[in-house]
Design the sequence.
């Protein structure tokens, strides 16, 4: 099995109430691929500039991520984002965005990339997402993320892109904005009516909810005493989710399989925020993932029972 | 077993995007006692005026709620609240508050009320909560709710009241405000350091989280396509929670018992919001409660498993 991600590769400068980093590896495709690499073979497509060196490639290669399709733009500079978080760590404040080589990005897929079983279209312009989708005709599971910018400026394109995928992973506020439905259940149904058969509403510290035509499944956020840097958590969630799904193969998209995918997504997102950038995921072990999976299971576990309720009057 | 609630009894005028009611039975003690009445014997303490008639008493009596300690203030009028909700049903907008007889309320407990096993101090002025707590010395489980008004105007009194109870049920934003801790896990720990050994953070549509010194348990909100009127949902949650706890007796405060209490609280709150005021809970049946309990259980259920994760590189 193998999984392709197309998205941003970046340098991030981040300040939170718990510290700051002036320049660290980031971008949706990076966070996604590191998380997914615990489950399956991952290939990254995205542009970088001359400032992206061996040290950065090594972070990806150390986790077995295939970097051959990373496009090096001669004379260019890598996408740069500067932002900060105040005490409400759910809200990122952008201080500076330099698109650089990402501004002219036209995804070019190698033959190996075109034939992966699973694809994640990270948060990029929706016309590009659709363009990538059309190059991966044989993919069996395709997921997509997006953001308020594209809902505001390219809503029709985004609806087309959504119509071409199996799975949408977006923040709950963005799902409401996209569908103009204040009720999340209805918003998720409207997105499924566009084509996808799975919708994941990411809810920050409140966890995540999964909607399919038949089922609903939700997990709370992991109760962390210290969230150091939430940057990339949504992409780590998507990486855990799609990485696990790809590892089991699309023959088994049973209810328990997608629930486990939700849980691995939650596990990877919860580790992501424990340190700055990719620091925690780089140091993560399989044992830690399995232990936290079991913690999530026990945290929501309820024994079956039907009590005899008291009659009225 | 028996359960006492001290709080407001009110008439509510409510407008939501789905309709309006000009005058309906409400108040924290009413919502709480109707919900709790499915599990145990409930007694209500709270003041009413001349406008509170047999029709209102009958709503409580029909569910077996003991109304002997409702204090009828001759010549007075019952507490009145007028409010509305826009499409964000998490936020109540108050248009009018007439405290009436509730403004001079001094809780007087009968001997029967003083000897109940469980007590809920609904959202009233914290000095009154403490005064009631001291009259119920033999109670084994005492819960408390509060609100931003008391955090702002009577913080020290509220901390004293909290120090005298076993269980705090508050909105997560209020727990953060009370402790000035943006992180919910730390906020809950700080509240436990004041005395209570259980803290429930109510999270509106996101569900609720339970903190004890040893454990964490969380449930998502029930995925409703139509939330008609959220008024009273928090009190119905508390009623289901404490009603169930009282019914099993405080000898069995095992982990699974408090998880079931959380679930019954979530069940009752989810029914509360399906119609205006007390309408849905008045029509509720034991079968519906048991079926939704099982839905909550399945909605978060995850089979145990440890997969062989892929090695890096």
Sequence:
């Amino acid at each position: 099995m193998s999984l392709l991600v197309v998205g941003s590769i970046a340098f991030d400068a981040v300040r939170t109430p718990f510290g700051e980093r002036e320049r660290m590896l980031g971008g949706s495709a990076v966070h996604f691929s590191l998380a997914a690499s615990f489950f399956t073979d991952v290939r990254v497509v995205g542009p970088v500039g001359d400032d992206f060196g061996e040290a950065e490639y090594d972070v990806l290669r150390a986790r077995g991520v295939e970097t051959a399709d990373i496009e090096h733009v001669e004379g260019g500079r890598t996408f740069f984002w500067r932002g900060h978080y105040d005490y409400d760590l759910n809200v990122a404040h952008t201080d500076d965005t330099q698109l650089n080589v990402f501004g002219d990005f036209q995804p070019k897929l190698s033959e190996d990339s075109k034939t992966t079983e699973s694809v994640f279209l990270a948060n990029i312009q929706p016309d590009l997402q659709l363009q990538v989708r059309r190059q991966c005709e044989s993919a069996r599971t395709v997921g997509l993320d997006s953001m308020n910018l594209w809902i505001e400026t390219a809503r029709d394109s985004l609806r087309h892109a959504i119509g071409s995928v199996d799975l949408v992973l977006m923040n709950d506020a963005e799902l409401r904005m996209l569908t103009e439905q204040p009720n999340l259940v209805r918003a998720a149904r409207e997105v499924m009516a566009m084509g996808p058969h799975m919708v994941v509403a990411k809810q920050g510290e409140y966890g995540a909810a999964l909607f399919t035509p038949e089922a609903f499944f939700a997990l709370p956020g992991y109760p962390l005493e210290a969230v150091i840097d939430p940057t990339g958590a949504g992409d780590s969630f998507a990486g855990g989710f799609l990485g696990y799904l790809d590892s089991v193969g699309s023959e088994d998209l049973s209810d328990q399989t997608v629930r486990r995918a939700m849980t691995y997504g939650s596990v990877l997102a919860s580790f992501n925020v424990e340190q700055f950038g990719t620091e925690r995921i780089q140091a993560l072990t399989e044992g830690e993932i399995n232990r936290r999976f079991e913690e999530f299971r026990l945290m929501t576990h309820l024994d079956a029972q039907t009590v005899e309720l008291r009659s009225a009057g």
In short: The radius of gyration of chain B is 19 Å. Chain B has a mean pLDDT of 94. Residues 30 and 240 of chain B are 13 Å apart (CA to CA). Chain B touches chain A through 61 residues (CB under 8 Å).
